[in-house]
Amino acid sequence: MTVEPLENTDSEQGEVEVAAESEEENRNYKWYVVHSFSGYEQRVAKFLEGQLLLRYPGRIGKTLIPTEEVTHRKNGKEYTREKKLYPGYVFVQLEISDEIIMDIRAMSNVSGFPPMNRGKPVPLTVTDMKRIQDQTAGTSDKKIVRIQFKVGQTVRVTDGPFRNFTGVVETINAERGKVRIIFTIFGRKAPVEIDYKQVRMI
Known about the structure:
Layout: H1 4-26, E1 30-36, H2 41-55, E2 60-64, E3 67-74, E4 77-84, E5 89-94, H3 98-105, E6 110-112, H4 126-137, E7 144-146, E8 154-157, E9 166-173, E10 178-185, E11 188-195, E12 199-201
């Protein structure tokens, strides 16, 4: 017989207690926007979660850099990467104080709190923050496709019943990954919607 189950139970109980304490603390938090230099969002978030949290324990909550997945094709291959929804902005939970405001404004790679970086920062509304969080949470189920060709360009179909047909792009639906192409068949124009993976530029 080992003591591991008892140790695990104690650990889980401790985690529950910590979670309950954190939830209690979170009631004092509000979401704010910090304007960072472009490309330095991760560094700013790391500072907020690290050095600033150590300086003000219990006053700094979660940070968020909203992203979305963007898929594009190049040379016949599909690539997916994360794209920032709001480049240059870091969202952070704060129990705000004049000292915290001054320290954030003094951070390197930070230009302050938008829009004017004057006076006391205004927290985001619950509605606005929920919309932003929903955008981020939805990226696992929804991808945005970046299609390289444009409306009006001539393309060739590489797969499916219209393989080797050549036509002109009429519309592009990036969210659905669909392309509407106008073919000329027997002297008549025929619009057809095709998956973007089946089309390439000429």
